[in-house]
Amino acid sequence: MTPFIRIQNISKKFGKLLAVDDVSFNLERGELFSLLGPSGCGKTTLLRMLAGFEKPSEGYIEIDGQNMANVDPADRPVNIMFQSYALFPHMSVSNNIAYGLKRASLPSDEIKARVEELLRLVHLSGMGARKPSTLSGGQRQRVALARALARRPKLLLLDEPLAALDKKLRSETQFELVNIQEQLGTTFIVVTHDQEEAMTLSTRIGVMDNGKLVQTATPNEIYEKPETRFVADFVGDISFLEATVIERTGKYWLMEAATPIYAIGSSTLTSGMKVSLAIRPEKITLTSQSTGHLNEFPVEIEDWAFYGAGTQYKVIGPDGIKLKVYQSHNQPSHANPRHLETGFVHFSPDATIILEG
Amino acid sequence: MRSTVPLLVKLLATAGFGILYIPVMMMMIYSFNRGKLVSVWAGFSTKWYKELWYDDVLLTALYKSLLIGFSSATISTIFGLLIAIAFLRFSNFRGRLFLSLFASAPLVMPEAVTGLSMLLLFIAMEASFGWPSGRAVDTIMIAHATFGMCCAAVVIQTRLRDIDKSLEEAAKDLGGRQPFVFLSIILPLILPSIIAAWLLSFTLSFDDLVIASFVSGPGSSTLPIVIFSKIRLGVSPEINAIATLMILTISALVMIGSFLVLRRDGKK
After folding, report:
1. Is A84's Cβ below 8 Å from some Cβ in B?
2. Local structure of A298: helix, strand or coil
3. What is the mean pLDDT of residues A195-204?
């Protein structure tokens, strides 16, 4: 079966600058895919090529079996929700939503019914006559969403859909967006620099760095099994240890990183190899006394920060290795260990991520 | 909270505005003078305004000024709009810098230079292909449209620059095509600046003396030219009356123009 959306070896050059570098990925119908990356990584350029505002220098885009190469933005089964929302300030909310429907020359009563339906979908019934300037940020965002959905696009592109909202509104809107997407079954591509947003929204994430798509996987895999140091570092908090592979001992690999560490890794490793070991802060346990676990070593506590649900520590181990440790306050024993100046950390060998090179 | 303005600043401001506007007000007051002498008050009367109504020379000149003003302002606005769009919507075309220099140079060029060069151009054109034959209303119109166009371009550009480019893209994305996208999205948003540009061009044309005196011919004297020649024969209260009317008309137009430009900005 051919994929619903196929992006094949897409590159985009602006003069000498390679903004998007040989990106390929496929989407199934109904997916909510996030393009995640720091600003300037080429994700917005990729989005603009999908919408048809930029022509790819190389490669092609296929939507539902149709090659998009020579299709005008106006004719693509794709709509975009702009970061600035780009609502037409001189038109009412209803007329904003109806703009695309009128271009499709639908009968006026059908347009009216569709606008009402969309207003209900985004919880703005009765606001149709208002001007965008009289709406709050969250309401504007919903008008923009309704307008982009009006023509029933096969693919909806969202450029930083939540960036302009304040933090509390953002998390509400995230769920709302997922709801609407599931309700309609439209395929979404969301561009974001916010890893948390990408995690909560998407079925799959494509992480971009410097024009390249470095990893495409589910949020869980991206978090638990990052393939490169960039992905590991960009998504979530993480500590890195530089280590040398010593030998394989049963299920695990023994490593030397100022202290012996057992880690889980593939069989492609060889003795003497230099690797980066990555560990998520919440996978590390901090105790006041030694507990005799594997991968345990003494640390000095340099700093801590209270987060309500937990506490984040910065600790220094043997040979100056630095780790971030997150202790959730889910057990009384963990509730207040922050008076410690020294202690022990340990983590399971299964919690380590080995990044070669 | 109101900040207190130092006394010296207040005095200077009063003096400055006084120097600017007291003569104008004097002139307006003396246009209602009954006597024939400009500087001796002989009681209130509106007779000079009535006399204007029967002064054929002035009325013909007024008609010509209005005709030139309307047509040159319209041409200016259309071309100014095109220049503004070219600058802001097609960012990197060949010769962009040159066009931008050429489009704003007439604003700072001495009017006498503009007038003289226009005159030379018209003479050369007439000599080589017979048009325009002599200097008349059409030559003044062309000359006025030329510098009005530069002002119009500047006024429209400031507004157009503020418009989010994604508005146009959103319209295209929703199935809109040019020129419909321009007419339905961009034009309504820049309309106030287009009206302001038209009013400004009209005002510039209506009170221009220098350029018009270079490129006008016999029988095509505009209002400022007629007034100026009348003054040389001695100032009469009739001139005060017509000047008062001109000032009121032009201030009204300029006020409407600035209001339209400012109202949009104030909204944001």
Report:
1. yes
2. strand
3. 91
In eight-state DSSP terms, residue A73 is G
Q: Are B58 and B225 in contact (CB under 8 A)?
A: no
Chain B: residue nearest A73 by CA? B173
- Residue B267, Cα to own-chain centre: how many angstroms? 26
A75–chain B Cβ distance below 8 A for any pair = yes
Q: For residues A109 and A99, what is the distance between their CA atoms, to the nearest angstrom?
A: 14
Q: For A304-331, what is each residue's pLDDT tens digit?
A: 888 888 888 999 998 888 999 998 887 6
- In sequence order, the β-bridge partners of residue A263 are A253
Name the residue among B171, B175, B185 with its Cβ closest to that of A151: B175
Instruction: For residue A326, give every residue at least 6 positions away whose Cβ sits within 8 Å of its Cβ, in sequence order, or none.
Output: A237, A281, A282, A284, A310, A311, A312, A313
| A189-208 residues touching B, CB cutoff 8 A | none
Beta bridge partners of residue A287, listed in sequence order:
A344
* Chain B residues bordering chain A (beta-carbon distance below 8 Å): 164, 166-167, 169-177, 184-185, 188-189, 267
Tens of pLDDT, residue by residue over A8-51, are: 999 999 989 999 999 999 999 999 999 999 998 999 999 999 99
Sequence-distant (6+) residues with CB within 8 A of B190 are: B156, B159, B160, B163
CB contacts of B176 in chain A (<8 Å) are 74, 99, 103
Q: What is the ipTM of this complex?
A: 0.84
Could you give all domains of chain A from N- to C-terminal order, each with its CATH number? 5-233 (3.40.50.300), 237-356 (2.40.50.140)
Q: Identify the closest residue of chain B to A100 by CA–CA distance.
A: B174
Q: What is the pTM of this model?
A: 0.83
Instruction: Delimit the domains of chain B by residue range.
Output: 55-267
CATH architecture of the domain B55-267 equals Orthogonal Bundle (1.10)
Amino acid at A209: D
